Amino acid sequence: xxxxxxPSAAPGRPDRPAGTERPxxxxxxxxxxxxxxxxxxxxxxxxxxxxxxxxxxxAGVGIGTLYRHFPTREALVEAVYAAxxxxxxxxxxxxxxxxxPERALRAWMERYAAFVxxxxxxLNTLHSGWASGRLATPATRERITAAIGTMVARGARAGxxxxxxxxxxxxxxxxxxxxxxxxxxxxxRTQRLLDLVVDALRPPGSS
Length: 207
Known about the structure:
By secondary structure, the protein is mainly alpha-helical. It has nine helices and no strands. The chain is 68% helix and 0% strand. The termini are far apart.
C-alpha cells in the first residue's frame, strides 16, 4: 500500500488498537486539504482544463486518493470554489482588524480579484453543474455584498467612507471592473480602476 492511501478500518479485527480511526481521519483530512490547495493553485494559473493527475502529483498523493475524496471533476471544483469563497468573505473581518476601513476595503478588493481569477478557470464546470443541479448554487453575491457592507459600514462610522452607498452597488462596480479587464494583459489597469472605486466611496471633500 502506498503512503498516500487511506485504508478504512476493517470491521471485526480484535487485534486493532482502540482509537486508531482518529489518526486515519486526520491523515485523510490533510490529504484533502493538500488536494484543494493544489487545485486552487492550478485553477488560478491555468487557461485550459487542468489535468487531475497533475493536481494529485502537486499535492503529493496518488490519483486514487484524489478520486476517493473527489469522485468527479465537479466535486473537486465545487470544493475549491467553496474554499475560495469562504476565504474571500472571511478576509474582510481579518483586514479590518489590522487596517483602517478604507485601506482594508482596498486590500480586500485585491483578494476578491484573486477569487474572480480563480473562478474564471472553473466557470464551465461550475455552470454545467449548477444548471444540472449536480452542484448546489452558492449565495456568492449575497456573501460578497455582506462582506463589503461590513467594511463600508465601519468606514462610514470612522468618517473615511460614505454612508449613503448601497453595498450591492459596490459589488456591481467591482464586477464591472473585473468583467471589463478580463481579457486584458494589463494588471495595472485593474489597479487604477480599483483605486477609482475606492475614491468614489470617500466622502466629498476628503483627501
